[in-house]
Amino acid sequence: MGQTYINNDFTGDFTMIIEAIRELGVKEFVCDSSPDTEETFNRSYKSLSKDNPEITWEEVSPMIKNLQAEYDALAYSRKREAEYPSIQECVHAILDDDLTALQEKRQAIKTKYPKS
Questions:
Q1: Cα angle: 60, vertex 64, 69; to 5 degrees
Q2: Which residue, among 60, 76, 52, has the nearest Cα to 4 in the 3D structure?
Q3: 3 state DSSP class of 70
Q4: How confident is the model at residue 3 (pLDDT cuts 50, 70, 90)?
Q5: In what order do the strands lie in the sheet with 29-31?
Q6: Partners of 45 in the beta sheet?
Q7: What does pTM read for this prediction?
Q8: What is the 3-state secondary structure (H, E, C) of 28-67?
Q9: Domain spans in the chain, listed from the N-terminal domain onward
Q10: What is the pLDDT of residues 51-103, one digit of tens each?
Q11: Who contacts 6 (Cβ-Cβ below 8 Å, separation ≥6)?
Q12: Which of 9, 32, 35, 113 fits as disulfide partner to 40, beta carbons 3.0 to 4.6 Å?
């Protein structure tokens, strides 16, 4: 399996760029910044293997937008997960025969963060 070499800038945009490049079938590459134009992409991206497909900013840019849309569409799920009862709380509810309260708490969270 190939390696990807990146800098330590793990901002959302940079992560989406790396994922977009991987989704286009590139396995070994360097991307040392967060490009947002064809010019900055051409400066920051370098393939490290002749087996990698040739890619362009025109291919990467829409892929980034698609990945961001998919990520944004699941915002409700991440918010729910952060507030749902822990495994330990669930176990205690089961052992204490308090499933009704547990389900009420979960439903309140689902109501607070509905699917879009």
A1: 150
A2: 52
A3: helix
A4: very low
A5: 4-6, 29-31, 45-47
A6: 31
A7: 0.71
A8: CEEECCCCCCHHHHHHHEEECCCCCCCCCHHHHHHHHHHH
A9: 4-73, 76-112
A10: 999 999 999 999 999 999 999 999 999 999 999 999 999 999 999 999 999 99
A11: 14, 18, 30, 31, 32
A12: 35
Tokens (6 digits) for 56: 């362009």
The C-alpha atoms of residue 26 and residue 18 are separated, in whole angstroms, by: 10
97: which DSSP letter?
T
Tokens read off for 47: 């393939």
Q: For residues 60 and 53, what is the distance between their CA atoms, to the nearest angstrom?
A: 12
Tracing tokens 């490009």 back to the chain, one arrives at: 35
Task: List residues bridging with 47 in a β-sheet.
Answer: 29
The residue whose two tokens read 């330590």 is 8
Interacting residues of 89 by C-beta distance below 8 A, sequence separation 6+? 102
**Exposed/middle/buried for 86, CB within 10 Å: 0-12, 13-18, 19+?**
exposed
What CA–CA distance (Å, rounded) separates 2 from 21?
Answer: 13
